[in-house]
């Protein structure tokens, strides 16, 4: 089995809903977000999926979040923008695009260098 991963860092502001702590206040993170795809077959170039193609799709999704106040976005209108919910949102958006080889495995969202949430199905 082969697995490829692409990551990118974006800056977002958010507030957690009904959270009993300082994170209920407006604050921001430089989120490091990683997507992973896996599969058993490679193409004639020896690639599972060309990183360029993954980045096109991944960057397109992350552009909708970068430098945004997440709570203002429709996806987080009634959903607290925790790292877990951000990971699921990115996963759901990426699922819309499929590749000839390689299936979506997971999306990981680091809020800080030591705290990460992972969504997979
Ligand atoms: N499971 C989760 N727990 C928390 C999330 C989350 O998304 N998933 N998010 C937060 C807050 O967004 C918060 O900004 C981060 O909290 P915290 O780690 O407490 O931040 P600090 O930098 O203040 O922590 P210190 O390590 O004490 O400096 C909270 N929890
Ligand atoms: Zn936060």
Characterization of this structure:
This is 6-carboxy-5,6,7,8-tetrahydropterin synthase. One of its GO terms (molecular function) is metal ion binding. The active site is at residues 23, 67, 111. Pathway: Purine metabolism; 7-cyano-7-deazaguanine biosynthesis. It comes from Capsulimonas corticalis. The protein has 121 residues and is α+β, with helices and mostly antiparallel strands. The protein has a single domain (2-120), classed as 2-Layer Sandwich (Tetrahydropterin Synthase, Chain A). It has 2 helices and 5 strands; from the N terminus they run E-E-H-E-H-E-E. The protein has helices at residues 51-63, 83-95; strands spanning 2-14, 27-39, 68-69, 103-112, 115-120. Strands 3-1-2-4-5 form a 5-stranded mixed sheet. The longest helix has 13 residues, at 51-63. The protein starts with a strand and ends with a strand. The model has no long low-confidence stretch (mean pLDDT 97). The structure holds the ligand Nc1nc2c(c(=O)[nH]1)N=C([C@H](O)[C@H](O)COP(=O)(O)OP(=O)(O)OP(=O)(O)O)CN2 and zinc ion. Zinc ion binds at residues 14, 23, 27, 29, 111.
Briefly summarize what is shown:
With 121 residues, this protein is an alpha+beta fold. The chain has two helices and five strands.
Oligomer description: single chain
Into which percentage range does the β-strand content fall? 35-45%
CATH architecture: 2-Layer Sandwich
Unreliable runs, pLDDT <50, ≥5 residues? Answer: none
Mean model confidence by pLDDT: 97
- The level 1 CATH classification is Alpha Beta
Count of folded domains: 1
The gyration radius over C-alpha positions equals: 15 Å
Largest sheet: 5 strands, mixed
Task: Spell out which ligands are present.
Answer: ligand LPXRUNBV, zinc ion
Give the end-to-end Cα distance, rounded to a whole number of Å.
Answer: 18 Å
Strand adjacency order, main sheet: 3-1-2-4-5
**Helix and strand element order:** EEHEHEE
What helical percentage do the residues reach? 10-25%
Structural class: alpha+beta
């Amino acid at each position: 089995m082969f697995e490829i991963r692409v990551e990118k860092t974006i800056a977002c502001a958010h507030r957690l809903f009904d959270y009993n702590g300082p994170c209920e206040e407006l604050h921001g993170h430089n989120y490091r977000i990683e997507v992973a795809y896996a599969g058993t077959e490679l193409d004639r170039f020896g690639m599972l999926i060309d990183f360029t193609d993954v980045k096109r799709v991944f960057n397109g999704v992350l552009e909708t979040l970068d430098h945004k106040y997440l709570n203002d976005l429709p996806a987080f209108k009634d959903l607290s923008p925790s790292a877990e919910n951000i990971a699921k949102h990115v996963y759901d958006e990426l699922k819309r695009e499929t590749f000839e080889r390689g299936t979506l495995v997971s999306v990981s969202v680091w809020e800080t260098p030591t705290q990460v949430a992972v969504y997979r199905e």
